Amino acid sequence: MNSQMIFLQIIFTEIENFYRSYEYFCWILIIINAVTFSAYALDKAKARMGAWRISESVLLGLALIGGAAGALLAMFIFHHKTRKTRFMMWVPLMLCAHLAVFAYLIYKL
C-alpha cells in the first residue's frame, strides 16, 4: 500500500472510533445538517414563488449551530444565497470551524 492509502485508512479508522464513542452526537449533527439543507431548499422555493421567506438570520443561525455543511451544500445545489457576501464568507468559515472542532474531538478525546 502506498502512503496515501495508509493515511486514508488511519483517518477512516479514527472517524469510525469517534462515531462509536459519540454516536448520539453524530446523529444530532446529521439531523441539524438535514434540517438546514431543507430550510435552504424551502427558502429557495419560496423565493421563486414570491412567498414569505425564511429570514437570513435563521438560515445563518442554522449553519452556526452545526448545519454549515448542509447550508453550503444547499447553497451550491440550489444556487441560493451565492451572491450574498455574508453567506459566501460566513458559511465556509463556520464549516471550517466545525471541522476543526470535529478534528480536535477525534484526536484529543
Could you explain the architecture of this structure?
This protein is mainly alpha-helical and 109 residues long. It has one domain. It is built from four helices and no strands. It is elongated, with a radius of gyration of 16 Å. The protein starts with a helix and ends with a helix. The model has no long low-confidence stretch (mean pLDDT 90).
Give the terminus-to-terminus CA distance.
29 Å
Which stretches of 5+ consecutive residues score pLDDT under 50?
A: none
How many E strands? 0
Mean pLDDT across the residues is 90
**What is the succession of H and E elements?**
HHHH
Q: Largest beta sheet, briefly? A: none
Query: What is the approximate shape?
Result: elongated
Number of helices: 4
The structure class reads mainly alpha
What percent of the residues sit in helical stretches (DSSP H or I)? Answer: over 70%
**What is the rounded Rg?**
16 Å
Number of domains: 1
Give the percentage of residues in beta strands: under 5%
Give the helix/strand layout.
Elements lengths: L2 H19 L1 H27 L6 H22 L7 H24 L1
Helix pairs in contact: 1-2, 2-3, 3-4
